[in-house]
Amino acid sequence: MILVFVVPELKPLQHSCRESARTSQESNTPPDCAAEKLPFPRYTDGMISKASVIPIYLVRYGAIPEVVKAVWQGGGSLVRGKSVVLRTHRGVVLGEVLETVRPTSEPGVNETPPTSEILREATDSDNDQLNRLRLKSQAEFPAWQQRIEQWGLDLQLIDLEWTLDEEKVCLYVLNERGPECTKLALQAAAAGLGIIDVQPVSLEGLVTLPAGGGGCGSCGMH
């Protein structure tokens, strides 16, 4: 049985944009279609007119695994172990479906909303791309180790990987979140090395941001 996530009714986007455009004509200011900047998940105009149900899955991804809640709007169900392409806070990655999300039955407990979106089921081309990027990451590992040493950073690089679209590289470092992670991202950006996401790792796994915290979780140069 597929468990679902209930999405409340959303107002049409075009109406808000027309109102903004009408106001802008009267005041000679650019229209501000703020209604289009909706929080995740995003919906196209007219897709939702009444409360809808959207399946949510637990998906695992990453060289050092992370599990996220991801919505799926592709139709049909996804079985455990299915390879999928999803958009996460790191970018577009290849992941593995674990299970459908089971809502809690405990009263007064708020469900954590999904943070990712399954774009499609993975193809042979996606898997070939992943294998190619793994080889690329292995080849680039010594160069990144050398850069960290040259920049005098107190960080130990333990792994790295590219997003599936090659838009970003994630560097896994053995360290707590702190200024050294931020320095690494800034140094890489200054050296013209593209978009870098620095992910600290402890012996227990990924080091996550505390609630309301800042620091290295957002130090990738987006």
Outline the fold blueprint:
Blueprint: E1 4-7, H1 13-27, E2 52-61, E3 66-72, E4 83-88, E5 91-100, E6 116-121, H2 124-150, E7 157-162, E8 169-174, H3 179-190, E9 196-202, E10 205-206
Parallel strand pairs: 3-6, 8-9
Antiparallel strand pairs: 1-2, 2-3, 2-5, 4-5, 4-6, 7-8, 9-10
Q: How many strands in all?
A: 10
Global geometry: globular
Q: Which class best fits the helix and strand makeup?
A: alpha+beta
- What percent strand? 25-35%
For the biggest sheet, the summary is: 5 strands, mixed, barrel
Chain oligomer state: single chain
Mean pLDDT: 77
How many helices? The count is 3
What is the string of SSEs from the N terminus onward?
EHEEEEEHEEHEE
User: Uncertain segments of ≥5 residues (pLDDT<50)?
Assistant: 1-27, 29-51, 211-222
Q: Termini, distance in Å?
A: 39 Å
Helix content: 10-25%
Question: Strand order across the biggest sheet?
Answer: 2-3-6-4-5
Using only CA atoms, what is the Rg? 21 Å
Total separate domains: 2
